[in-house]
Write a structure and sequence with these properties.
The structure holds two protein chains of two kinds. Chain A is α/β, with parallel strands linked by helices. Chain A has helices at 37-42, 87-94, 105-115, 129-138, 148-151, 176-184, 198-201, 220-229, 240-248, 331-346, and strands spanning 2-7, 12-17, 22-31, 49-53, 77-79, 98-101, 118-124, 157-160, 165-171, 187-193, 206-209, 235-238, 253-269, 274-286, 294-298, 304-309, 314-317. By secondary structure, chain B is an alpha/beta fold. Classes of the chains: A alpha/beta, B alpha/beta.
Chain lengths: 347, 1041
């Protein structure tokens, strides 16, 4: 069956439908990771997005439940140059995801790079392009949109009950890989909803602010909670969690034109001059700053990739040290944080 | 960290002649490195014996030494030049081994030369099997279970078969193999022990059937590590990776499995301690269990890294050279993109497939089964947006000769063990083609589907019983056209200035360059416009690096002349496919379909076909038919020279003599023709490359046998015996001809010119003969209307001059002749093709060089057990070396040394010649005795030598009954220092074959022709000790005189 992707600027990309019938709205973005398609599609940070893979062939090695970053897919639709099935395409269908194959993804990618990520609709089957474009124009913009409530856990739960440090994870759309890495580092892990209050969190040895979708700017309650915890409990922010920490410490955030999504982004640790090859997935960033708390910068566009506030025992990174998918270069960052928290708690 | 300030001069060692396992990828690496080192202000010194390399061009380094790549050769250069550092990681295994030898012998320390890129400890840890295994184990990774053996007695009795043998310190796993039983093991072990320069062989757990992956890793001195590329082998473990079809990026691993490999690769490079450079690390992975084994690491730039560079657009050799002199990854820009740093790991939005090119047809009798020892002679790469598209391009690009035996001959001949994912994808192609029956059935959508699978117009045409042109016309009528996309190493994420392109289907064309969007009306643009240069495709015997050398110079020259140079080629090893060389690089098969599509996009002012060997010539007619202009010599003139009937008539008209000839298709017809011509005759198929399937026949039976092997029309030529054979390279502007080099072959006519040693200037040519030769070449140039390069092969027999062959294009000898004479023949030819006259070129009146240069061929016989190592009319050389000296004996001795066949100064010479040569061998034997050699000979030869009054020891042949050792035993035991054996017929089980094979295994120089033996004796007697002189010094001395 035919299908197409229509962007709000009127561009249309034809393809074959290989997933569910119907249509899906979202912000059209692309990721350059060559492996980990299942992880990408199930990553809650991709909520309300239509994700395009620049990788030439997707679905080659099937699917595996353990690889999912959440209980269900969060991307709204998937766009590929060449989908390989049947396991992957069956999975897409089963989960009701609109998926297109045979799309000129390179042209689409270059278009998004030049014009910026934009609202789009993916349609499986025949449909009126004009009608589709009309509805796209009615969809909300990503900028200014808080999305964490839609993907956060409704109730707290214990992920790992034993460990050398008790870590609270504030779930803004947390990937399983973060929880797995924390547990592997020896932490006892409890996960809280995005709306967790200071009283829920202040007794833990450390607080991890997770990744998540959407614009950080409207997350006033979350930011206030974090601000209240600063200096009281050690904090580590990842991705959206990094942006929330930045807002809580007086920095500003802004929307990147098309974001950083991939598994090959080099980041310079300014303190050691070492380069980390990182996994990234963000459409917003912390505004550039000469402040001394900026510890990491992107070697690709100079954007802020990490902050450290030793006097507040808080730090954060924009990239994904937990990988999933992507290189493990920054795993030690999580391990070291857990070790530090455990050490501080023991002292 | 910035560039090191304590270094100012750096010596780089090349990899020498092209051999199997070590080809032009190291010229690519070396020339890239020299470029960045010079940009950084270093004084560069290069040592390499291979004249067909770009890195040895006088403009590429401050000092260029075409010297033998052996201990003495390099030590001599280091002593003269006293560089601050030696960079050994860009010249393959040859350079690495030499650097270790120089370090171990204290030469480097004595001269104060620092080893940069990889230090001796690092090289040892990576290259010494046991040290490497220990290092990997300490890093927490697994290696295959194994044991090191230095003596057959060391083999543990509890071995479980199959096992793999890997000799230490050899090229491409050379001398190794897989043994499935004790007898097999014993046979292989003996060979493996002798092949290893340190007499060390690893016998290891066989991982037959495991999947094989390679990662290209780079590390800097701050311990930053990036993975440039992952490569997956389609042929699983057990087949040498050089012989495998490989794909990048890896296709079948999940993220967690791939990251495990990535982590392991980083652990290995750190544990081994490579701290500023690239490495290639090979892994075996069990398909089901995911068990991982580290197989091997090369602490240097390798064939795979050349492939990875071309596959990703990441210039590994440039980065490695920069790291070696102090930079870190975050400081080095990737000049392909101009926007990303070298720490940006490439991400691909296309698939790349490499297919090996074999040449088994050249080695009748040789085993064709693939194993752990590399046998392919070249490779082709295809880029596409799907696996099958890339795969089919690579397979097409191999340019197989009809009837050639090769793995993966047809699409459905999928080897055992290929991963189901690849199998399924390939089967979908076969299935799609099976559904195609008629062009009339195909509409736009069908065409698009077929093209997106990678199926060529020719394949569709074949399935429909139509011509390729008809299929193409229909496809185009449906509006299905290729689109061209950029290789940018970042999947479009970053704006990249890349000029590196490939084609695909059903997509938009990447925005053309600014240069391309200009008004193309000639005379209205800022320059004359683009020129498309067609490359030579995969290396094969008869068409190798020499042609790539010519194409690179063509691109350089046309750019200097103001044209935009557009390169088309599909060989990832080459310098021509470095995106630096041209204004635009199309990495595409050299087939009519792709080349026409490129020309349609480029609208060139001309297409250059004379530098890429036979490959572009085959396309010339189709280009002309499509309305494109072929620059230089016209396809019509090429046809005139290649069509024997027309050429014969032309010679008759000019009253130029050629050997009597005829053509035939039937055996009886051939015998009649042969009798008319007179024996011996040379039998060959028409339109041959490298003398494929050529044979000299002395009687009707041999003619019949030769006809049985041939298909189609064959040529029969009178074979001139005892002739002086000459090779001439000339330049022609359509009217006037400039004879640039007259070279003399050392071996007689009958040995293919590519396999014969060759001397410039020709020592045996009298001034009068030379004048006559030049006269004939001038007449031919004018008569053919050649515009550009002209190569003529001639012979002088009994006072008469014969023309054997005319090639109105660049020949194999062009790089050698250019370097020996100091005239850049390709640059001159390009200027002529662009419209200049000879008079405009300012060429020296007499190009004859004052010094004597010798080119010697390097033969791959050791790779093909079962094939007879004897020189003949069919070319088998893979590469060549050059040496220059004040006189012939010195130059010849040096060339033989450079070719790895150093002539002995004395000792025992074994002689066994066929009856026809019994008389001619006497003076050679006499000279050997005079030089202090002891002679050993088999009965017939011994008799003749004794009768001539020489002291000679008799030894029996293998097939002769009797007691005591045979000649083969003597050779095997190292009792002979030189073997002279001319063949009495050829074939696997003759005595001559057994002698030659034993010499090959024992690495004793083995000479199979009388002129070769005479030259060797002259060289042994008269070679002078000489200090090495750089190319630059020779050129300036020549200019001064």
């Amino acid at each position: 069956m035919k299908g197409f992707l229509a962007l709000e600027d009127g561009s249309v990309f034809a393809g074959e439908s290989v997933g569910a019938d119907g249509f899906a709205f979202g912000e059209a973005v692309f990721t350059t990771a060559m492996t980990g398609y299942q992880e990408v599609v199930t990553d809650p940070s991709f909520a309300e997005q239509i994700v395009t893979f620049t990788a030439p062939m997707v679905g080659n090695y099937g699917v595996e439940p353990a690889r999912s970053e959440a209980a269900r897919p969060h991307a709204r639709a998937v766009v590929m140059r060449e989908a390989r099935g049947p396991v992957w395409t069956d999975w897409l269908l089963e989960h009701g995801l609109v998926a297109l194959s045979g799309v000129d993804t390179r042209t689409l990618t270059v278009h998004l790079r030049n014009q910026g990520a934009m609202r789009a609709i993916a349609v499986a089957g025949e449909g009126s392009v004009d009608e589709a474009l009309r509805i796209v124009a009615e969809q909300p913009l990503m900028a200014g949109r808080p999305l964490v409530a839609e993907v956060s856990t409704p109730e707290p739960y214990v992920f790992a009950d034993r460990g050398r440090a008790r870590i609270a994870v504030v779930d803004y759309g947390c990937k399983r890989s973060i929880l797995n890495r924390l547990a592997a580092a020896g932490a006892a892990v409890t996960v809280f909803p995005h709306s967790a209050q200071v009283r829920d969190l202040h007794a833990f040895d450390g607080i991890l602010l997770s990744n998540g979708p959407g614009d950080p700017e409207p997350l006033h309650d979350e930011v206030d909670t974090v601000r209240a915890l600063l200096g009281r409990v050690p904090i580590l922010g990842i991705c959206l969690g990094h942006q929330v920490l930045a807002l809580a410490t007086g920095h500003e955030t802004y929307k990147l034109p098309f974001g950083h999504r991939g598994a090959n982004h080099p980041v310079l640790d300014k303190r050691s001059d070492r380069v980390l090859v990182t996994s990234q997935n963000h459409g917003f960033a912390v505004s550039a700053s000469a402040a001394k708390e900026v510890t990491h910068v992107s070697l690709y566009d100079g954007t802020v990739e990490g902050l450290d506030f030793p006097w507040l025992r808080a730090r954060s990174v924009q990239f994904h040290p937990e990988a999933g998918p992507g290189p493990h270069d920054a795993w030690p960052l999580l391990d070291e944080w857990v070790a530090e928290v455990a050490y501080a708690q023991a002292a | 960290m910035p560039r090191r300030r304590d270094l100012s001069s750096i010596c780089l060692i090349g990899s020498g002649p092209i051999v199997i396992g070590q080809a032009c990828e190291f010229d690519y690496a070396g020339s890239q490195a020299l470029k960045v080192l010079r940009e950084d202000g270093f004084r560069t010194i290069v040592v390499n014996s291979n004249p067909a390399t770009i890195m040895t061009d006088p403009g590429f380094a401050d000092r260029t030494y075409l010297e033998p790549l052996d201990f003495d050769g390099v030590a001599d250069v280091l002593g003269r030049e006293r560089p601050d550092a030696l960079l050994p990681t860009l010249g393959g295994q040859t350079a690495l081994n030499l650097a270790m030898e120089l370090a171990d012998e204290g030469i480097l320390a004595g001269l104060g030369v620092e080893l940069i890129g990889a230090g001796p400890e690092v090289i040892r840890r990576a290259e010494d099997r046991e040290l490497f295994r220990e290092t990997v184990r300490l890093a927490g990774l697994k290696v295959p279970e194994s044991t090191i053996v230095t003596d057959p007695a060391d083999v543990p009795v509890d071995l479980s078969f199959p096992v793999i043998l890997r000799p230490a310190f050899t090229l491409g796993g050379h001398g190794g193999g897989t043994a499935r039983s004790w007898p097999e093991l014993q046979a292989l072990l003996e060979r493996a022990l002798s092949e290893s320069p340190v007499g060390q062989v690893l016998i290891e757990e066989s991982l037959l059937g495991w999947d094989e992956f390679e990662l290209e890793v780079i590390r800097d001195r701050r311990d930053n590590v990036v993975i440039v590329c992952s490569i997956e082998n389609l042929d699983p473990m057990g087949v040498h990776t050089g012989d495998s079809v490989t794909v990048a990026p890896q296709m079948t691993l999940s993220d967690e499995a791939y990251q495990e490999l990535r982590d392991a690769a980083a652990d290995v490079i750190r544990a081994v301690g490579v701290e500023c450079g690239g490495s290639n690390i090979q892994f075996a992975r069990h398909r089901e269990s995911g068990e991982l084994r580290v197989i091997e690491m090369n602490p240097r730039v390798s064939r795979s890294s050349a492939l990875a560079s071309k596959a990703t657009g990441y210039p590994i050799a440039k980065v490695a050279a920069k790291l070696a002199v102090g930079y870190t990854l975050d400081e080095i820009p990737n000049d392909l993109t101009g926007t990303t740093p070298a720490s940006f790991e490439p991400t691909l939005d296309y698939v790349v497939v490499k297919a090996p090119r074999f040449a088994f047809e050249k080695f009748p009798g040789a085993e064709t089964e693939l194993g752990t020892q590399m046998k392919s002679v070249g490779e082709a790469m295809g880029i596409g947006r799907t696996f099958t598209e890339a795969f089919l391009k690579a397979i097409r690009s191999r340019e197989l000769d009809g009837g050639a035996v090769t793995p993966w001959e047809a699409l459905d001949a999928i080897p055992v063990g290929v991963h189901a994912w690849f199998r399924r994808d390939l089967e979908s192609v076969t299935a799609a083609l099976a559904r195609v029956h008629s062009l009339d059935d195909l509409v736009a959508d069908d065409w698009l589907k077929l093209k997106r699978l990678g199926i060529s117009d020719a394949d569709v045409a074949a399935a429909c019983g139509a011509t390729e042109a008809a299929a193409r016309a229909r496809r185009r009528a449906w509006g299905v056209r290729p689109a061209f996309r950029r290789v940018d190493s970042c999947a479009g994420e970053v704006e990249a200035a890349s000029n590196y392109l490939y084609s695909t289907w059903g997509e938009q064309d990447d925005a053309p360059d600014e240069a391309m969007s200009r008004d193309r009306v000639p005379g209205h643009g800022p320059g004359p416009g683009p020129v498309v240069i067609l490359g030579s495709g995969p290396n094969r015997i008869g068409q190798g690096i020499e042609f790539d050398y010519c194409c690179v110079h063509a691109a350089k020259t046309f750019r200097e002349l103001g044209y935009e140079a557009v390169m088309v080629n599909c060989n990832p090893e080459t310098v021509s496919t470095d995106y630096d060389i041209s204004d635009r690089l199309y990495f595409e098969p050299l087939c009519v379909e792709e080349v026409l599509a490129i020309c349609e996009r480029e609208r060139p002012v001309g297409v250059v076909t004379q530098f890429g060997g036979q490959t572009p010539l085959k396309l010339a007619r189709a280009l002309e038919a499509a309305g494109h202009r072929v620059l230089g010599t016209s396809p019509e003139a090429i046809d005139l020279a290649e069509d024997r009937e027309r050429f014969g008539a032309l010679l008759d008209g000019l009253q130029i003599r050629c050997p009597a000839w005829s053509t035939a298709t039937e055996p009886d017809e051939a015998v009649v023709a042969a009798e008319k011509i007179g024996y011996p005759v040379l039998v060959r198929p028409s339109y041959v490359l490298g003398g494929r399937a050529m044979r000299v026949c002395y009687g009707p039976e041999e003619v019949r046998a030769a006809m049985a092997d041939a298909t189609g029309r064959v040529l029969l030529d009178r074979f001139l015996e005892q002739a002086l054979e000459l090779d001439v390279d000339a330049l022609c502007d359509g009217e006037d001809t400039y004879v640039a080099a007259v070279m003399q072959h050392v071996e007689e006519a009958g040995v293919h010119s590519g396999d014969s040693a060759c001397v410039l200037p020709a020592p045996a040519l009298s001034p009068l003969e030379r004048t006559y030769v030049e006269e004939v070449v001038r007449e031919l140039g004018a008569a053919l209307g050649v515009v550009g390069l002209l190569n003529v092969q001639l012979a002088i027999a009994e006072g008469d001059l014969y023309v054997l062959e005319v090639n109105p294009r660049a020949s194999r000898t062009v790089p050698f002749a250019s370097k020996a004479s100091g005239i850049n023949l390709v640059a001159a030819a390009c200027r002529l093709a662009a419209g200049a006259n000879l008079a405009d070129l300012d060429l020296p009146a007499d190009p004859t060089p004052a010094q004597v240069s010798v080119k010697a061929a390097v033969l791959p016989f050791a790779r093909f057990p079962g094939a007879d190592p004897v020189l003949g009319p069919e070319m088998r050389a893979t590469g060549e070396v050059m040496a220059t000296a004040a006189d012939f004996p010195t130059a010849f001795a040096k060339a033989e040394r450079a070719a790895g066949r150093a002539l002995p100064g004395g000792g025992t010479a074994f002689i066994s010649v066929c009856d026809a040569h019994k008389e001619a061998i006497v003076p050679v034997a006499h000279a050997l005795v005079g030089l202090g050699f002891e002679l050993v000979a088999t009965a017939g030869t011994a008799h003749v030598l004794a009768a001539a009054g020489l002291a000679v020891e008799y030894v029996r042949k293998v097939t002769e009954p009797g007691a005591g050792p045979t000649v083969v035993d003597l050779v095997r035991r190292g009792r002979c220092d030189l073997v002279v054996n001319t063949p009495q017929g050829s074939g696997a089980r003759t005595d001559g074959y057994l002698i030659r094979e034993a010499a090959l295994v024992a690495r004793v120089p083995c000479i199979t022709t009388i002129p070769g033996a005479a030259a060797a004796v002259e060289a042994i007697a008269h070679a002078q000790p000489e200090i090495s002189v750089s190319l630059q010094e020779r050129i300036s001395a020549a200019r001064a005189s």
